[in-house]
């Protein structure tokens, strides 16, 4: 018994050391964001000799943070919204229709997951450029295309847990397919909708490459703006680090509020990507 | 019956149109244009396999493939060891387990671009400073050559992705039946034997998933590569994704870049499918 208790304490200490190790990059970013340029030069590892907020003010202005935050929120929410609406519909239709065509379409969606973005990137930009859709609306449509595969896959899997007799009962009561889906089925898909939302939100919020190819400067999202900002301040670490800190604070706050849902969503999603053997 | 198929198409159309226009049309378009002298707008002549022959003669592209493969192999080992290790630690029912999970997973919520910039500061400035303080020569001059650039990417990836893979291992570790562990304990198995003979075979499916994710993640890595090393010095740390991007949008050699993109697709698909096939074969079922 004694040995068990000792082991527990050793594990706790190991965990705490690893936790500090994991947090150290954030620590270095955070403390140095409060330092003056000279202070960073002579004193990187310790606390600031004098805490200054000037870096944050300048970074906030140069990042055009209010605007890029708005762009990020608008694009992420609209994209995730249409992914949930249209992927749940498709997942339902594919799961309930047992024809060969339906099985083929499902396979097409799954196969699309094997195509890396770089393989379609160049023609995508060329095609959307020709129809003048290289803007935020085009981007949201692209996110539906790239996000639908995994989302449909997850919804399709969740549908197997919803009994067909529900469909039949509602149909007898006079509901058409549209009403049946939105009033009965979709509310029951809520847990998987949360997973789909979290997985797509993390990806779209942080995406850099696609927005960089599609968006103009005044539509820039946070990662895109950060790239330009960083290029502007190479070697001026006090400003660069303040900008990085501003960019990640909203994410960290939301994470600590909703961490259980987020970790569960990621876990459910990742484990279901490849179905278990049975 | 007619009505039923109408509603089927109503439900399918939005995602089918989006997937078609965003993935399949560009994919086919790109495949066809990789055999021409396409400049992004028009193609004047059909070149056959000329682009493909050229890319296998381009030393830089072969280096990018080799660099990516090396990175993928090292990452798989490191990320899975870290992921499984962290998962074993946080499933020990310590009071702080939830906090540990939250912290270890945190980097995954922040995009690769931002993480790459943070680590650029650490490798270049903080490592330098710590190296002077501790008198450790190897901490100085990071990211200034291909070797430290490589290990920089590996460390960033392990730190970021270890917590993600941890989540997957946790899901499987929590499903290991407690009776099995108790039975093996009564039979006199030590903790090490219990891990190798009981736990490890039962979390093998998690290894399939995490290997698939680590591999495809490593092969498609772009943001971290761009932010951490920018492919430098002298393109020595450019991975395949970045090489394709630069060929297309820095050199404006569109058809050639697209041929590389087709090879990239074949590589990613082959690796992913082979890997899943072999891992599925050696898993055990409960």
TrEMBL record, chain A:
It comes from the Bacteria. It is a multi-pass membrane protein. Residues 69-258 form the ABC transmembrane type-1 domain. SUPFAM superfamilies: MetI-like. It is found in: Cell membrane. The chain crosses the membrane at residues 9-30, 73-94, 101-128, 140-159, 180-205, 237-258. Keywords: Cell membrane, Membrane, Transmembrane, Transmembrane helix, Transport. GO terms for biological process: transmembrane transport. Belongs to the binding-protein-dependent transport system permease family. This is Multiple sugar-binding transport system permease. It comes from Oceanobacillus iheyensis (strain DSM 14371 / CIP 107618 / JCM 11309 / KCTC 3954 / HTE831).
TrEMBL record, chain B:
This is Multiple sugar-binding transport system permease. Residues 65-275 form the ABC transmembrane type-1 domain. GO terms for cellular component: plasma membrane. CDD domains: TM_PBP2 (cd06261). Keywords: Cell membrane, Membrane, Transmembrane, Transmembrane helix, Transport. It comes from Oceanobacillus iheyensis (strain DSM 14371 / CIP 107618 / JCM 11309 / KCTC 3954 / HTE831). It is found in: Cell membrane. PANTHER family: ABC TRANSPORTER PERMEASE PROTEIN, INNER MEMBRANE ABC TRANSPORTER PERMEASE PROTEIN YCJO. It comes from the Bacteria. GO terms for biological process: transmembrane transport. It holds the Pfam family BPD_transp_1. Belongs to the binding-protein-dependent transport system permease family. Its main location: membrane. It is a multi-pass membrane protein. InterPro entries: ABC_transporter_permease, MetI-like, MetI-like_sf. The chain crosses the membrane at residues 7-32, 64-91, 103-130, 150-173, 194-215, 255-278.
